[in-house]
Specification:
heterodimer; A: 603 residues; alpha+beta; 5-stranded mixed β-sheet; 19 helices; 17 strands; globular; B: 320 residues; mainly alpha; 13 helices
Chain lengths: 603, 320
C-alpha cells in the first residue's frame, strides 16, 4: 500500500478502536470521599471533647454540642449521597427459587425489610410501608391457619408490588429437564429429588451429569443444587417433600407441636442404621443443627434456624452452648421456637435437619466427606469422588428400606458444557441431564419428546427497582416501567419458554397465596404512557428522551436476550433512554452488595 | 553450555517471581472475591462472607497474604486450600486425590497426556504436509494442503468438537461423547480436534520456512556439488528450515501441556484446562495463583529447551 493510504487506514482503525472503547458502558466509578471523611473524623473528635466538657458545662456547652452534631450528620449525609451515586442502577435482575411451600420464603426472605438479598432500598425510602410490612410478616409467621396466613402474605405482596412497586416480576420458574424413559422420576417442587423414590424399568445404574464440580459434600455447608443432589442420596432428613410440596415421614415417623405452637417434638424411626452399622439416634440430628449454627463455621443456611430460641445468639458467638434443641431419648428430639412459626414443618424436610456424626468428623477432620470416611443414613454411600471428573455412590446394604431402593449404583459425571451434557444424554451415556440448562436452541426440537419433563419448581425471575435512584425514586414512574414490559412476548419469542407463567406478583402459582393478575401491573401500553405523563408533569420533564434509566444484569443464560428485550420495550413504549450494564456474576453481586452496605443495608 | 543454562535458569526464577507478584496484585484488585456469592450463585449474607474470609486468611493485609502463600508453596509445595471446592486443597484438584496410587488419573497428567498426544499428531502430520506443500509449490497438492490447514485454523476447537460429537457419537455411534481414562476411544476425538489447529500452523510455517531455505546459497552449492536431492533435503535444508518452526513449537507444547480450555470443556475431560477460567470466574485465589504459576514454569522450561534445540539445529549457534 502507498504510504499515504497506509497512514489513512491506520488512523481510521485507531479511531474506530477508540470509539468502540468509548461505547462500552462505564463501570461504576470509585468516588473519592477522603476529604469529607477527614472532616468527619475531625468533627467526631471535636464532638467527643465537647461531650466530656458538656458533662460539666451548662447550656452553652449543650448548644455547641447540638450544633456540632448537626454538622456531623450533614457531612455524613453528603458522603452517603456521593457514595450512593456509584449505585446508579435503576433496575437490576435477579431470580429466586423457593426452598419450602410458604409464601414468606419469597415475600419476606427475599424482599423483606431485613433481607440481605434485595437491593431496592425500599425499606429506607418508605419506612412506614416497611413497618406495616413488618407487622404483616410477624402475624403471618405466627399464624398456623393456612388460608388466613396466605391472605396476610397477599397483603404484604400488595404493599411490595402494588403500592411500592419495588419489584418488577417477569416470569415464574419451573423445572425442565431430560430424563430417560427407562426410569420413572419423581421431582418434588422443593429440595433435590431422591433416587430411592424413583422407579426403573431396567437400568440398575442411575447416571446423571452434574456441573463442573461438586462444591462440597459437607451437609452443613452445602447450599447449591449440585451438592444437594448428591447429599440428598446419602442422608435422610426427618421428613421429605412429596410431589405436591407437602411433607412425608422419612427418617422420622411423625412430630407433635405444643398447643402454643413453639415446642416441636420429633419421633424417629427405631430401625434406621448408619452405613457403618451404628444406629441413627436423635442426638445425631441435634448435632446436625448445632453444627449448622456453630459460630466457628460460616454456614449460609444458619439463618434458616434462627427461629429457634437462642439460635441467633449462639451463631453470633454470644452463647457458649445451645440447649433449646435437644434429644429427649434415643429416638426423640425436641426444639423450642421463640414464637410459633407456620412454615417450620417444611423445614423438617429441609437440608438444615440432616444428621451428622460428630465422631466421624472428629476422626477424619477436613477429610470427613471423602469416600470411605463419610457415613450415610440414607440409601446410598459415597464410594468414589474424583473432583472435576466423576463421583460414584452405591446402595447402602444397611439402609432400613434397602429392599425398595431401585438402583444399585449411581454415577455422577461432571460435565460443565450444557451441549455436551445433552449429547451424552442423547447418546445414552447418562440417564438424566441434572446439569441444569441445555442450549435454548435445542428446546423446540426436544419439547415434544417423551424424555422432556416439566415439573413445578416455585420461583420467580424478576427485576428489582432502585427506589433511591433518580426517576425510579418516584412510584408513578415505577408503575410506568412495570406496565411497559410485555412478559408474554418475552417468554414466547425471546426466551422461547412458552409454557412458563408470566409474573406480575412474586408468589409463584404453585404456592397458596398466588394472586395472578390481581396484583402488580400487567402489560398495558396505554396505562404505561398514562403513568409516564403523570410522572413527567410532576417532575417537570418535557421530553421523555431526557429520562435516562440504567439497567444492570449479569451475563449468563438467556439474561442478555431478555434484558435487551426489556430495554427495547421501555424505549419503544415509553420513549425513555435506557442504558444497560452487564458484568459477570461475581462482579455484579459484589457491586450490589456494596451498595446495600452503603445504603444502610437490610440488616 | 552449562553456564548458559544456569544463567537462563536464574533469570527464569526472577521472571516467575515477577509473574506471581503481578498475578497476586491483579486478582486482589479485581472486584468481588471468592465468597461474595455462595456456590449456587445466590447472594451471601455479609456476616457469613466476613467469617469465610477470616477462615481463609483473606482479612490479613495483602502483603502478608502473599508472603504466607509463597512460604507455603516454596517450603511445603502446598498451593493452599481451594476457596470454591472447599472439600479439597488445590494440590488435590491439580494433582489428583491419590496421586501415587493413580498417577494417570491426576488432572495435570490427563491434560499433559492430551496435550502431548495432540502435539505428536500435529507435528507428525504438520511438518510433512508443510514440506510436501513447499516441494510441490502452487500445484494441486499445495493448494489442497493449504486449504485444509486454513480450515483447521479458522474453525474454532469448540465448534469442531461439537460437529465431531454429532457425527461420530450421535450419528455413527462409533465413539463416546465425553470422558477420559476409561476407554481408548474417548481419546480419539479430543486429540484430533486439538491437533487440527496446531497442525495447520505448523504446516504453514514449515512450508514458508522450507521455501526460504530451498532458495539459499548453501543448498544451491550442495546441488552443484552433485549431492542427491534427498540428501540435500534431509541433511541440509530441512534442519535449518525447522528453526522458526521449533520457535513456535516450544510455547505451543507449553500451552497444550497445561490444558486447553475448549477441548476439555466440550469433551468433559478432567484436566486442568477448565481451572484457568473457572478459577478466575469464581475468584478462587489459591487456584488462580497455582494455575498461573504452573503455566509460567512450564512455559519457561519449554522456552529453555527450544533455545537449547537451536544449538543442535543450527551449527552457527553456540552457547559458550
Amino acid at each position: 500500500m502507498r504510504k499515504k493510504r497506509w497512514l489513512a487506514f491506520s488512523m481510521t482503525l485507531a479511531l474506530v478502536l477508540v470509539l468502540a472503547a468509548c461505547a462500552q458502558p462505564a463501570a461504576p466509578v470509585e468516588v473519592d470521599t477522603s476529604g469529607l471523611e477527614s472532616q468527619i473524623a475531625d468533627l467526631e473528635a471535636a464532638l467527643a471533647e465537647a461531650e466530656t466538657a458538656g458533662a460539666a458545662g451548662g447550656e452553652d456547652a449543650e448548644e455547641a454540642l447540638a450544633a456540632l452534631q448537626a454538622e456531623l450528620e450533614a457531612l455524613q449525609g453528603q458522603t452517603k449521597d456521593l457514595e450512593q451515586g456509584t449505585c446508579s442502577y435503576n433496575a437490576y435482575r435477579m431470580g429466586w427459587v423457593m426452598d419450602w411451600a410458604d409464601a414468606g420464603n419469597i415475600v419476606d426472605t427475599v424482599f423483606g425489610p431485613t433481607s440481605d438479598f434485595q437491593y431496592t432500598f425500599w425499606q429506607l425510602t418508605n419506612p412506614d410501608a416497611a413497618a406495616a410490612f413488618g407487622d404483616l410478616t410477624l402475624s403471618a409467621y405466627n399464624d398456623t391457619d393456612l388460608d388466613n396466613r396466605s391472605a396476610t402474605w397477599q397483603s404484604a405482596e400488595q404493599i411490595l408490588v402494588d403500592d411500592q412497586v419495588a419489584v418488577l416480576p417477569i416470569y415464574h420458574y419451573d423445572r425442565t429437564t431430560m430424563v430417560s424413559t427407562d426410569v420413572d422420576p419423581l421431582f418434588p417442587p422443593f429440595g433435590a429429588p431422591k433416587m430411592r423414590d424413583w422407579g426403573t424399568s431396567g437400568p440398575t445404574t442411575m447416571s446423571w451429569s452434574a456441573g463442573a464440580s461438586v462444591p462440597t459434600l459437607d451437609v452443613n455447608r452445602a447450599t447449591d443444587t449440585t451438592s444437594s443432589t448428591v447429599i440428598y442420596q446419602m442422608y435422610d432428613a426427618p421428613f421429605k417433600f412429596n410431589a405436591e410440596g407437602g411433607i412425608e415421614p422419612q427418617a422420622a415417623t411423625g412430630f407433635d407441636v405444643s398447643d402454643d405452637g413453639t415446642v416441636f417434638t420429633v419421633h424417629l424411626r427405631e430401625d434406621a442404621v448408619w452405613s457403618d452399622g451404628e444406629p441413627v439416634l436423635a442426638q445425631h440430628f441435634v448435632d446436625g443443627v448445632t453444627r449448622l449454627l456453630s459460630p466457628d463455621l460460616a454456614n449460609d443456611y444458619a439463618y434458616v434456624m434462627f427461629d429457634i430460641v437462642d439460635a441467633a445468639d449462639y451463631n453470633a458467638g454470644d452463647l457458649a452452648e445451645l440447649d433449646t434443641i435437644k434429644a429427649i431419648d434415643d429416638y426423640t428430639f425436641e426444639f423450642t421456637l421463640s414464637e410459633p412459626r407456620s412454615y417450620f414443618d417444611s423445614i423438617l424436610a429441609f437440608s438444615t435437619f440432616h444428621p451428622v456424626r460428630l465422631d466421624v468428623i472428629e476422626a477424619f477432620g477436613d477429610e470427613w466427606t471423602r469416600p470411605g470416611n463419610a457415613v450415610s443414613n440414607g440409601a446410598f454411600v459415597l464410594t468414589e469422588h474424583n473432583p472435576g471428573d466423576n463421583l460414584v455412590m452405591e446402595k447402602s446394604e444397611s439402609y432400613w428400606d434397602a429392599a425398595n431402593v431401585p438402583f444399585d449404583r449411581i454415577e455422577v459425571a461432571m460435565i460443565a458444557e450444557p451441549a455436551t451434557s445433552l449429547a451424552a444424554f442423547e447418546n445414552g451415556e447418562i440417564l438424566w441431564t441434572a446439569q441444569g440448562s441445555f442450549p435454548s436452541e435445542d428446546i423446540p426440537r426436544l419439547v415434544d419428546t417423551p424424555e422432556f419433563r416439566r415439573t413445578p419448581r416455585p420461583g420467580t425471575y424478576y427485576m428489582g427497582l432502585n427506589t433511591a435512584a433518580a426517576h425510579t425514586d418516584n412510584v408513578t414512574f415505577r408503575k410506568a416501567l412495570s406496565s411497559a414490559v410485555d412478559r408474554r412476548t418475552i417468554l414466547d419469542e425471546v426466551a422461547e419458554l412458552p409454557w412458563r407463567t408470566e409474573a406480575t406478583g412474586v408468589i409463584p402459582p404453585e404456592i397458596v397465596g398466588h394472586q395472578g393478575d390481581a396484583v402488580g401491573f400487567p402489560f398495558d401500553v396505554a396505562a404505561a404512557t398514562g403513568y409516564l405523563d403523570d410522572y413527567m408533569a410532576e417532575a417537570g420533564i418535557e421530553d421523555a428522551g431526557d429520562i435516562v434509566v440504567e439497567l444492570w444484569y449479569n451475563k449468563g443464560g438467556a439474561n442478555q436476550e431478555i434484558l435487551e428485550a426489556v430495554e427495547a420495550m421501555w424505549e419503544s413504549n415509553l420513549g425513555i433512554d435506557v442504558r444497560t450494564v452487564n458484568v459477570e456474576w461475581a462482579t455484579y453481586l459484589d457491586t450490589l452488595e456494596e451498595c446495600n452496605a452503603i445504603g444502610g443495608g437490610g440488616f | 553450555m552449562a553456564s548458559f543454562v544456569a544463567n537462563r535458569l536464574v533469570r527464569s526464577v526472577v521472571v516467575i517471581f515477577l509473574i506471581s507478584v503481578v498475578t497476586f496484585a491483579m486478582m486482589q484488585l479485581a472486584p468481588g472475591g471468592p465468597f461474595s456469592s455462595d456456590a449456587g450463585g445466590r447472594p451471601r449474607a455479609p456476616e457469613v462472607q466476613a467469617r469465610l474470609e477470616a477462615e481463609f486468611g483473606l482479612d490479613r493485609p495483602p502483603v502478608e497474604q502473599y508472603i504466607t502463600y509463597m512460604g507455603k508453596l516454596l517450603f511445603h509445595f502446598d498451593f493452599g486450600p481451594s476457596m470454591r471446592q472447599i472439600d479439597f486443597s488445590v494440590n488435590e484438584l491439580l494433582f489428583g486425590v491419590d496421586f501415587w496410587s493413580d498417577p494417570l488419573g491426576s488432572p495435570v497428567l490427563v491434560s499433559a497426556q492430551l496435550g502431548l498426544m495432540s502435539f505428536m499428531l500435529a507435528v507428525a502430520i504438520g511438518i510433512p504436509l508443510g514440506v510436501v506443500s513447499a516441494l510441490y509449490r502452487n500445484r494441486p497438492a499445495d493448494h489442497g494442503a493449504m486449504f485444509v490447514t486454513t480450515l483447521g485454523i479458522s474453525v474454532p476447537n469448540f465448534v469442531l468438537g461439537l460437529i465431531f460429537i454429532l457425527i461420530f457419537s450421535l450419528w455413527l455411534h462409533w465413539l463416546p461423547v465425553f470422558g477420559w481414562g476409561d476407554d481408548w476411544r474417548q481419546m480419539v476425538m479430543p486429540v484430533v480436534v486439538l491437533a487440527t489447529g496446531g497442525m495447520a500452523i505448523i504446516a504453514r510455517l514449515t512450508r514458508a520456512s522450507v521455501l526460504e531455505t530451498l532458495g539459499a546459497d548453501y543448498v544451491r552449492t550442495a546441488r552443484a556439488k552433485g549431492l542427491r536431492e534427498r540428501f540435500v533435503m534431509t541433511r541440509h535444508a530441512l534442519p535449518n528450515s525447522l528453526i522458526p518452526v521449533v520457535t513456535v513449537l516450544g510455547p505451543l507444547l507449553a500451552a497444550w501441556l497445561t490444558g486447553t480450555f475448549f477441548v476439555e470443556l466440550v469433551f468433559a475431560i478432567p484436566g486442568i484446562g477448565k481451572f484457568f477460567i473457572s478459577a478466575v470466574t469464581n475468584r478462587d485465589y489459591s487456584l488462580i495463583m497455582a494455575t498461573i504459576m504452573l503455566y509460567s514454569i512450564v512455559l519457561v522450561i519449554m522456552n529453555l529447551i527450544v533455545d537449547i534445540m537451536y544449538g543442535f539445529l543450527d551449527p552457527r549457534i553456540r552457547y559458550d
